[in-house]
Write a structure and sequence with these properties.
With about 170 residues, the chain is of the alpha+beta class. It has one domain. It is about 10% helix and about 15% strand. The protein is built from 3 helices and 7 strands, in the order E-H-E-E-E-E-H-E-E-H. It has helices at about 35-40, 105-110, 135-140; strands at about 20-30, 55-60, 80, 85, 95, 120-125, 130. It has a 3-stranded antiparallel sheet, with no helix packed on it. Strands 3-7 form a two-stranded antiparallel ribbon. It is globular, with a radius of gyration of 17 Å.
C-alpha cells in the first residue's frame, strides 16, 4: 500500500475580524471520520482551493473581539457551528471547510468571507455561528446542561440531558 502525499501547507495572515464576525482562537477541532473522502480531490465534495479545512471548534480571541465581550466572558469556551447560512438567503448553505454547497449563493459563502475554517490557530466565523458554553455546566451535573446560541439555531452537545431555548443575540447597529 502506497502512502498518500501530505497536503501542502502555507502561511496565512491572521484573519482580521470584520463586521458580523467573531475572531476565534482554535483550541481544538474535530477530525471527521470521513475526512479522507472530503478532502480527496476526486470526491463529490465541491470546495474552492486553496482553503483551510475544519469543523466545529473554538474560543473567542478577546484581543481581536473586544467590542463583542457582551456575548462571552474572557476565557469562555465556545462551540463553532460549521453550517453557514446566507444572511439574505437561508436556502444558501455551506459547511465551513467541508462543502461549498450547490447553489450560487452557497458557493459565494465559501469563496468569499468564510473560505477558511478551523484547522488553523485563529480564524473568523459569522456571529450567528457560535454558541457560548458554560464551563460549570459542561463539567458539572448533566441535568444542568444548557447552551446559548447567538443565532438561535439548534445545537446538540453530547452528554446534555436538557436543552433550553437559546437567547438570540443580535449585533447592535
Amino acid at each position: 500500500m502506497e502512502a498518500s502525499p501530505l497536503p501542502s501547507t502555507y502561511q496565512l495572515p491572521v484573519h482580521q475580524r470584520t463586521p458580523g464576525s467573531l475572531a476565534v482562537k482554535v483550541l481544538l477541532a474535530c477530525i471527521l471520520s470521513y475526512a479522507r473522502e472530503i478532502y480527496d480531490r476526486a470526491s463529490a465534495y465541491p470546495d474552492p482551493t486553496p482553503l483551510v479545512p475544519g469543523s466545529s471548534a473554538g474560543r473567542p480571541d478577546e484581543k481581536r473581539s473586544l467590542d463583542l465581550t457582551r456575548y462571552f466572558s474572557p476565557g469562555q469556551l465556545i462551540l463553532v457551528n460549521v453550517t453557514i447560512y446566507g444572511r439574505d438567503d437561508p436556502t444558501s448553505m455551506a459547511l465551513s471547510g467541508i462543502h461549498e454547497g450547490l447553489n450560487g449563493g452557497s458557493k459565494n459563502i465559501m469563496r468569499d468571507k468564510w473560505r477558511d475554517s478551523t484547522y488553523t490557530e485563529c480564524t473568523k466565523v459569522p456571529l450567528e455561528n457560535f454558541y457560548a458554553l458554560s464551563k460549570a455546566r459542561l463539567l458539572g451535573k448533566s441535568e444542568e446542561g444548557t447552551w446559548i446560541s447567538p443565532g438561535g439555531s439548534p445545537c446538540v452537545v453530547t452528554g446534555f440531558s436538557r436543552i433550553q431555548r437559546a437567547r438570540r443575540y443580535l449585533p447592535e447597529s
